Amino acid sequence: RPDFKTKPVEQVLDDEPIMNETMLQLTEWIHRFYYCSWGEAIQAALPVGLNFSSVKKLRVKKSNRDQLTKKEKELLEDLEAGDYTLQNARKRWRDGVEKKLLNKAIKSGWIEVWEQPRQRVDYKTAKHWKIPASIEPKEILEDLSEKGQSKKWEQAFEELTKLDLPKTHRDLLGDELFTPYTLKRIEEEGWIESVDLPVETNSQNIGVHDPELIKTLTEKQKNSFDAIREPLDERVFKSFLLYGVTGSGKTEVYIHALKHCLEQDRGGLVLVPEIALTPQTVQRFYQIFGDQIAVLHSRLSDRERFEAWQSLKSGDKRIAIGPRSAVFAPVQDVGLIVVDEEHDTSYKQFDPSPRYHARDVAVMRAHMENAVVVLGSATPGMVSVKAVMEKKHEMLQLPLRPTGTMPEVKILNLLEYKHAMKGSLTAELHLEIEEALERDEQVILLYNRRGYSSYLQCEDCGHIPQSPHSSTSLTYHKKKNILLCHYSGYSRRADTHCEKCGSDNMVSKGSGTQKVEEEMQDLFPDARLLRMDRDTTSGKFGHQKIYEKFLNGEADILIGTQLVAKGLDFPNVTVVGVVNADTELAFPSFRAGERMFQLLSQVAGRAGRAEKPGIVYVQTWKPDHPAIVSARTHDFKSFAKQELANREMLNFPPYSRMVVFQFKSKSISKIQTVSNRFCDAMRKVVGENVVMGPSPSVIEWMNGQFQWEANIKLKRTYNAHVIEELLNRIFDKYKSMKPKGASSVRINVDVDAVE
Ligand code: ADP
Ligand code: ZN
């Protein structure tokens, strides 16, 4: 008997618990470490659609109705005819007399209110569009083309015939061509019909299944595989960092390890940054493992998600592949967890709570399940590198590409080209692009801009003002005309004077890809352009469409944000240009250099993967920046060494553990009072030196609310219990000195924050 108050069991919902012991443990760890409620952690670990709450429903009891008025009888009849919840009934009978009537019926016991445990998954069969067997799309299309000009919905039909039907309404409506109107028109014409179909978990086209296509490992790959196999065979926990340049064959190592894991009758879990961005990786796994895989991409409907979840839980499928949240997939008896591109920031959940890092949760889960975890990257994050140095992970290396060589990276110093620019392009990059276009080869131009942060840069020497306290870039706040360090809260007036070269040419920066696109159209009027950024990829197939268009040679130049840098293989690309590398470095984060290096390495990985050699051109004002120098020579190790030395000096992660507190409120004065008071409380608990802030966030005003933040740096070695206890003490202290109006300021806690 527990020593707290309990309630009697009313009904047993499951014969088997939906979470096993490990998942309970794992979510409990998340609850402590990331300082959220256990419930929040459990909710994150369960698929959408699973719900514990119950719903209040109505049941008519009264049979003898002779004494009732006409109105009362009607009410009961209505209730019997419909399947009412209390909430629905209150909505329907909400006004004066009717409301009284309903209340009377409940009070008198004519109707009973009972609690129905909510159906686990509440969904309908999904409507799918398909072309009826009686329709010959070819004939229709021929008719249309004879007619000449076709209407919007006729074009939509043509597009439909190219797709792999049937597809759900939901899937199609993400595309701008398939509006409800166009689909309705086509349906009226009888060219498509709508049918109810059970949704297949793996409904997206992920290629053919042919296990014969597994490759024989090279010597180096085999060494890595053997190292992974050992703890797998012994069924003990071990963590590896697999470091190998893009195209060095990491995926093949994962595949062999997974195969070995399945042969031992254990399951596997593969995490990838974003399924939409890594179609080739998923296809490769599918090729070898076929239907043993459940793909958990973000476009699944609730029902699909639940079915995938079930198929894993029942052991029908042995491997889960998916983004961040797939770390909770109920794979049975996990033997191996792979985290591909382990440095990717999408593994960190920002909102809502729990703000967990899927890579770290993966390591913890592997630990709890006696599994092996492999973190793979061409540009490992500093956290993982440090863990290798501390002998927490074992490092495996694949230094070379099995085919081809590393592309050449050329740095173009903007200072030297100051008087030889064509728009944002140096004369050299401009010429290279022209020549590539003449050879009918393709070009990728990267113009990165993160968030909405703007900064000042000197037009003469390229200098970007830095914070004296955190050696990160200062953010420019136009309204107040100040430069601000968002770690320490340091600020100063912004002016046009350059502290480095003395010129009077400091200007604010921060233009987007769209502007670059317009400029490129002017510079290369005959080239066909494609743009890939958050705006152009918002539709359902947005990303995939742009990707396919470019791959099919339907465009010559692809202009985009960091989205173009991720995981894509374009054999005809020979020139990759980074228009302004400094935009990344200007981002006010202590990780700016790390990001820059990762980005450049990834972009470089895009060029010259096939027979044609590729060159990457990087335009920058800071050719001597360690991130740029190391990226040029593909020298990750020397970069990591310098970067870590820097972090150690300033006690930034991975030498400390940073906890960010975010304050949100509609009132700027309350946010100031509360955040300052909160920081006072923190200083009392953890000491003066550990606390930084409060200061306005990089984006100070969003969705009608002000956002401020503060942070503390904790010892790296603190575990979940110590962190929880410490944060509890901070909040207790704060509670005892809470200012007035504190309740209108929300405080979010983000442990190991990643901006
Ligand atoms: P990474 O995951 O490190 O980026 P991949 O595993 O995708 O690298 O390999 C890059 C390319 O090299 C792919 O086209 C892959 O088919 C090929 N490759 C990898 N390993 C081998 C091998 N052992 N034999 C032949 N080709 C290989
Ligand atoms: Zn200057």
From TrEMBL:
In this protein, which residues make up the domain named Helicase C-terminal? 493-667
Q: Name one Pfam family in it.
A: PriA_3primeBD
Q: Does the keyword ATP-binding apply?
A: yes
Query: Which reaction(s) are listed as its catalytic activity?
Result: ATP + H2O = ADP + phosphate + H(+); Couples ATP hydrolysis with the unwinding of duplex DNA by translocating in the 3'-5' direction
- What are the names of the required cofactors? Zn(2+)
Keyword field: ATP-binding, DNA replication, DNA-binding, Helicase, Hydrolase, Isomerase, Metal-binding, Nucleotide-binding, Primosome, Zinc
Identify the residues that bind Zn(2+) 1.
C458, C461, C498, C501
Q: What job does this protein perform?
A: Initiates the restart of stalled replication forks, which reloads the replicative helicase on sites other than the origin of replication. Recognizes and binds to abandoned replication forks and remodels them to uncover a helicase loading site. Promotes assembly of the primosome at these replication forks.
Spell out the protein name for this chain.
Replication restart protein PriA
What is this organism's lineage? Bacteria, Pseudomonadati, Balneolota, Balneolia, Balneolales
Q: Which gene encodes it?
A: priA
